[in-house]
Amino acid sequence: MSKPSASDRELYWRLAESLSATARLVDRRMSSRMDDPVAARTLGLLAEHGPLRPTALAEHLQVSPAAVTRRIQALTRSGQIAIDPDTRDARTYTVDLTDAGRADLETAAAQVAGSLRAQLAAWSEGDITRLTELLERLLATAADTGGTPPATARTTTPWWREP
After folding, report:
1. How far apart are CA 96 and CA 83, in angstroms?
2. What are phi and psi of 117, to 5 degrees?
3. What is the pTM of this model?
4. Whole-angstrom distance, CA of residue 97 vs CA of residue 46
5. How far apart are CA 52 and CA 131, in angstroms?
6. Scanning 24, 61, 145, 154, which has the fewest C-beta atoms within 10 Å of its C-beta?
7. pLDDT value, residue 20
C-alpha cells in the first residue's frame, strides 16, 4: 500500500475537522434546548433504540458507567425516563423514555431542525438530501474503534433498588 500524499492527508484532515465542528455545533444547539448534553443524547438513544441497560448506554455515549448512573438518576428525578428492574438479573435494569421525556426530546429536535432549516435556507433540497445521504453513508461504513468499559464489582445495594 502506498504512503498517502500530503494532499490526501490534508483532504482527510479537513474532512475530519469539518465533521467534528459540525457535530459540536449540532450538539451545542441540542444542548441549548436541554439542560444537559449527555441527557439529550441519552434521550435520543432511548428514542432510537428503545429500552436499554446502563452498560449499553455507556457504550453508545462513550462515557463511564458512573457518568451514565448520574444521568439516569437525574433523568429519573425529572420524570424523563423510567426504570424497569430486570426480572432475570437483579443486578441490573433497563431505562426507557417516559411520555414527558419523549415530548421534551421532540421539542428540542424541532427547535434544532428549525435552526438548521434557517441556516441552510440558501441550499437546495437536493443539496441537503445529498449531504444527508453522504453523511449516513459515512456513518454506515465507519469502523467501530470504541471499547467496552470494564465491569465493576458492586458491593452495595443498587440505588434503584433501595427503599
Report:
1. 7
2. -60, -45
3. 0.65
4. 6
5. 30
6. 145
7. 85
First CA to last CA distance, the chain: 62
Check residue 54 and give its pLDDT. 93
Q: How does residue 149 score in pLDDT terms, banded at 50, 70 and 90?
A: very low
Residue 55: name the closest of 93, 81, 89 by CA: 93
Please report where in the chains the cell 438518576 appears, as a residue: 73
Mean pLDDT of 46-53: 94
34 CB burial (10 A radius; 0-12, 13-18, 19+): buried
pLDDT at residue number 89: 86
Q: How far apart are CA 43 and CA 10, in angstroms?
A: 36
State the residue for C-alpha cell 444527508.
132
Q: Grid coordinates in use for 64?
A: 463511564
Place of cell 474503534: 145
